[in-house]
Amino acid sequence: MDLLTNPIKDYAWGSRTAIAALTGRSAAGPEAEMWLGAHPSGPSLLSRDGSQRSLPDVIAANPVAELGAAVIERFGERLPYLLKLIAVDRALSMQVHPSLEQAAEGFCRGDHNYSDPWPKPEMICALTPFSALAGFRPPGEAAELVAALGLPALTPIADALASGDVLAALRILLGWPAADRPALVHDLVRTADHDLVTQLAEQYPNDPAVLAPLLMRHHQLAPGEALYLGAGVLHCYLDGFGVEIMGSSDNVLRAGLTPKPIDIEELLRITDPAAQPAAIEPVADVYLTPSPEFQLRRFTPGDAYHVPGDKPRILICVDGVVSIRNAAQEELKLHPAEAVFAAASDGALELSGNGTVFCAEPRL
């Protein structure tokens, strides 16, 4: 087992307090995410043989010992998941992720939107109250909400929704002429009796995607509740602090609420207007999803816990102190924000203590 040093991403939408408080320090600016894994854009570090090495390098040196034969057979010599702490203080971009087939096809044809051939399913598990937009409302309901604003400029969007064509409505919205966007947002704030529209307009005053709360479903998670976002589900995190686990990929198509480039046609091609997120209830402390890349275990204070071996696991403590012992009877103690990588060769783990720990692993 190896204690991990994990990079923190300072994206502008991050919190100045959430991750800093967990790590017991003050933040110099926004801190959005702590990454735990082997992603090349932010790999975890560990000490082996007296030197600091990246987790990808450790895996490459002995993939069978680190990952296990079953993981290599299914995913190749790579860690298939990425674990994060995510601290949202202002809305992230509206976005959607491709399926495995879409990612592989896009990567093979050299499309700049696809930097790798892997899917990026996600699950967020709330540590504090957590708010997100995910999936479309029924088209008729969205049409009524848009029409009720009484803005003639939005009539084409309301008409498209009324006919059931959600993607046509989204195409009109995202293609709004740049010169007319500030006036549209001003009119939306003036006429929409909707707190989320106002909140988004304050954060993104020139972005027509502030209309999204009228088109999409609003999800509010209590601590311990989880939401799974598969391929094709349009979504946007609004605020809150949580543990996020995902397929280890960079494939994101953005739809607004971002200064980053948007490829409207490719976004619409992979967005599934019928796809919805799924609430995931833990079964015996395990959050199971349809994705083979990951599952998430949560251990709370109380009895000892057993974690099966033969696959790579990353564990992070979010509260209290927890002891972890591997099959060789090596023991580590984790405090808040501390994390450990347990290789497949570490065998089964035994956990005890008065803390809360999340454990990421492939679902095999």
Automatic annotation (TrEMBL):
Cofactor section: Zn(2+)
CC cofactor note: Binds 1 zinc ion per subunit.
Domain of life: Bacteria
Biological processes per GO annotation: carbohydrate metabolic process; GDP-mannose biosynthetic process
Catalytic activity: D-mannose 6-phosphate = D-fructose 6-phosphate
Enzyme Commission number(s): 5.3.1.8
Domain Phosphomannose isomerase type I catalytic: 4-138
Family annotation (InterPro entries): Man6P_Isoase-1, Mannose-6-P_Isomerase, PMI_typeI_cat, RmlC-like_jellyroll, RmlC_Cupin_sf
GO molecular function: mannose-6-phosphate isomerase activity; zinc ion binding
Residues binding Zn(2+): 95, 97, 122, 235
Keyword flag Metal-binding: yes
Keywords carried by this UniProt record: Isomerase, Metal-binding, Zinc
Pfam family, one: PMI_typeI_cat
GO cellular component: cytosol
Keyword Protein biosynthesis recorded: no
Active site location: 254
Annotated NCBIfam families: manA (TIGR00218)
Family the UniProt entry places it in: Belongs to the mannose-6-phosphate isomerase type 1 family.
Name of the protein in question: mannose-6-phosphate isomerase
Origin species: Acrocarpospora macrocephala
Phylogenetic placement of the source organism: Bacteria, Bacillati, Actinomycetota, Actinomycetes, Streptosporangiales
